[in-house]
Amino acid sequence: MLFRRKLRKPNVSWEDSMKFNFVKLAAGTLLSIGLASAAHAQTIRLAHVDPDDWTASKKGAAAHVFKNIVEGETDLTVDLFPAGALGNEDELVNQAIDNVTQMVLISGAMSKVCPAASVLDIPYTFSSATIAWKVLDGEFGDALAEHCLEQTGLRTLAYGETGFRNFTNNTREIRKPEDMQGLKFRVQPIPLYLEMVNGLGGEPTPIAWTELPNALSTGVVDGQENPVGVIYNNGLHKLQKYMTLDGHVYAADFLVISDEFFSGLSAADQAVVKRAAVVAGNMGRSIQQWTSAEGVNKVQEEGMQVYSPTADEIAAFAEKAQPAVIDYLRGELGADAEWIDRLQTATASASE
């Protein structure tokens, strides 16, 4: 028969027992605090479609500045998803509406969910970037942000800049609208751009961005339109001989955040997030201005002929392009067409 030896409890003093229980209690408390903190830790997923390089990418620069400020001054974490890692702009804006991706930096996609934003694409509205900044950072920009918040659940924290769009072509120098007659221009598949080029006398041809270089190389189209930085960084100047700095459309970036997420932040964190977004938007504008100025010089150094129209010449372009676009927008916007008049009033005031 096997005999099992009975284990004896160690002889523990009352003082040791109290110490042991105190350590258990403290450890449990610390664990609970840790779990609670983890449960309340918040992360902002921030996405955009531009490259990550802050020295050349307006959205890339804005994203990094935002991340550094927010993480430096709050307990929030900001995870960046650049270069379309989470999808194109249309996909990103819908992710933000669903609070799947908390914050996105977008441009053209905003008008698809908040149609009133499309008034910013009325050609020749802004005579300079500084005028655009005054309008967007003033009462008009605040009112548009509030309107789009009601429409989408997205809070516009600040405005950045994609830049002025300019015409290029491989046939002749364009100084006046008549010079566009008979030329085919690649445009985005957006009705507003079709109306604009038609109004100027050109032939608009919707072509996907990925197919543009081949379309220019094979002569499917004679020209295209984009910001200078986009033209240079994608080598389009090597396929085109002429550029006209008409700045027909000023493209703004919208730095938007899910209001569902934003409303869940503390007042202190909300203040930091809003301030960081404004700084980020201004950083994006600065990088855009830099790449545009640098791009104009570089395309000329590499053989492109660049023409800068006079104020009277720009007025002639506006006279041809604006009526068709405004008529189209009034029909599309319905009750929201009032935003056309509000923008014109704000721009006139900012230009004084």
From TrEMBL:
Q: InterPro entries of this UniProt entry?
A: DctP_fam, TRAP_DctP, TRAP_DctP_sf
Lineage of the source organism?
A: Bacteria, Pseudomonadati, Pseudomonadota, Alphaproteobacteria, Hyphomicrobiales
Q: Name one GO biological process term.
A: transmembrane transport
Among Gene3D superfamilies, the record links this protein to:
Bacterial extracellular solute-binding protein, family 7 (3.40.190.170)
Q: Which PANTHER family match?
A: 2,3-DIKETO-L-GULONATE-BINDING PERIPLASMIC PROTEIN YIAO, PTHR33376
What would you give as a GO molecular function for this chain, any one? carbohydrate binding
Q: How far does the signal peptide extend, from start to end residue?
A: 1-41
Keyword Nucleotide-binding set for record: no
Q: Which organism is it from?
A: Roseibium limicola
Record GO cellular component, one term: outer membrane-bounded periplasmic space
Q: What is this protein called?
A: DctP family TRAP transporter solute-binding subunit
Keyword annotations for this protein? Signal
Q: Which NCBIfam families match?
A: dctP, TRAP_S1
Q: What's the domain of life for this entry? A: Bacteria
Which one Pfam family would you cite for this protein?
Answer: DctP
